[in-house]
Structure formats: structure tokens, C-alpha cells
Amino acid sequence: MPKQSPWGTERFLVRRTPKRGFRQVDLTFDGNEIRGLEQNPQTKSQWAQLARSGKKVMQFLSEGRYAANVVDGEVTFYGERGG
Length: 83
Known about the structure:
Blueprint (H helix, E strand, L loop, with lengths): L13 E3 L6 E7 L2 E7 L7 H7 L4 E6 L2 E7 L2 E4 L6
Antiparallel strand pairs: 1-2, 2-3, 3-4, 4-5, 5-6
């Protein structure tokens, strides 16, 4: 049985960043405003290295801080969750 998205059938507008054209999406989850940004593969981070190798990498920000990262559907949270 396929996993159901926590957003059900809700759809979100995916835009492109003005300067470099990376994908970004704004959404609300559990009352939190979240922005998802496609990873820039040209930086020196481990996440960029994964993007350069062909993985799909997104960074997620909440309240201006990086909150999580998703690589090919696998989530890594930064710091403490909840609160």
C-alpha cells in the first residue's frame, strides 16, 4: 500500500529562484511556514556533492533557519524537533 502524503491531495506552486533558477516551494505543515529550496550543486557542501552525483536534494527552512534536508525521499532533521 503506498504511503499517503501528509498533505493529501493538496497541490503547491513550485517557483524558480530569480537569479539561478533553482526550484522553491512555500507550504504550511503543522501550522509552521516552511520553504523548500532545491540544492545548489555548485557549493562545497556534502548536500551539493550528492546533488552533483544525480540525487534529488532539497533544503527546508522554517523561521529563516535550515530545519531539514531531503535526499531522494530520505529526511534528515537539523537540531531538535518539536517544541
